[in-house]
Amino acid sequence: MGAPKEPEFEFRGTCCRPVKELLSRIGGKWTVLIVTRLADGPRRFSDLKREIEDISQKMLTSTLRDLERDGFVQRTVTPSIPPRVDYELTDLGMDLLSPLEALGAWAVRNQHRVDAARARFSGYRPAAPHPNDNETHASI
Amino acid sequence: MGAPKEPEFEFRGTCCRPVKELLSRIGGKWTVLIVTRLADGPRRFSDLKREIEDISQKMLTSTLRDLERDGFVQRTVTPSIPPRVDYELTDLGMDLLSPLEALGAWAVRNQHRVDAARARFSGYRPAAPHPNDNETHASI
DNA sequence: CAGTATCCCCGGGGATACTG
DNA sequence: CAGTATCCCCGGGGATACTG
Fold it and tell me: Which sequence ranges form a coiled-coil region, renumbered to this chain (chains A, B) (predicted)?
């Protein structure tokens, strides 16, 4: 009976569980950082940890696990002592780079337009302020 | 004088606060849904509320406010009683549609590869299981 | 080295009631 | 109609300690 009422995505005609999932995956704090690091070639766990530096062990592990689970990353264990684990992009992971780069390029190209909009928004807007913009109204 | 150690994004050479910001914006639960609705033309607040249906008033308001702030959406008030507020994509918002559609199309095209990866991942993996895959080991 | 276990915090998001 | 106010919850993410 009840499918647990997930909001049904509709993306310009095409239906959208996959879109929603991809969006929430790349919306994660570390995913894109890790993927772009791996774009330059395979990395050991400790390489990634060192290169990204601000990431916690836990988030590196769990983000990599999610990426492995979804098929973007291949995990290879070399059972030595100490153990060695390498991560690399799969074909699927490499394919993902294109739309990601398109989005990244767009963000960089249009950054100034967003910044300008923000300046306008927080600046003086004489007409039609939002109801509770609790600005101590300047009048007197 | 520490800048509050934000992880510095590096996206294939180009630096990346804007990429990070765009990613977290479209990673939001409702942003893309709203933007794609507006892609078909201007909508009143209540239209969006009705069309998206599962969204709460609060999230519709705050997501629209974020989109307005960043310059993707234009908000137009008609001070009648009851009031009427229309939202529409700005040029910036419409420009965003391209990379978004590219990403959406990719997600749909490659959905089966992700699904296949997941099936493999949760299925029987004889070699190199993760340390604590606490599977009640089938042996005996 | 490459993890796991535990504890904790904050903010995104939801529900409900109220308002100019 | 188009919001705001309040209260609440959960899970993403961080810190720290421990381990095969």
Answer: none
Q: Which two tokens stand for residue A52?
A: 């990204």
Select the residue from A72, A114, A122 to test the B interface by mutation, using most B Cβ atoms within 10 A: A114
Mutate to test the interface with A, among B6, B16, B23 (most CBs of A within 10 A): B23
Q: What is the pLDDT of residues B85-135, one digit of tens each?
A: 999 999 999 999 999 999 999 999 999 999 999 999 987 554 454 544 444
A81 phi and psi, to 5 degrees? -125, 115
State how far the Cα of A91 lies from the Cα of B129, in Å rounded to an integer. Answer: 22
Cβ(A101)–Cβ(A58) under 8 Å? no
CATH numbers and ranges of domains, chain B: 20-122 (1.10.10.10)
| Closest by CA position to A52, among listed B20, B22, B10, B14 | B10
Instruction: Give the integer Cα–Cα distance in Å for B81 and B70.
Output: 29
- Does the distance separating the beta carbons of B113 and A77 come in below 8 Å? no
Q: What is the pTM of this model?
A: 0.84
Helix (H, G, I), strand (E, B) or coil at A74: strand
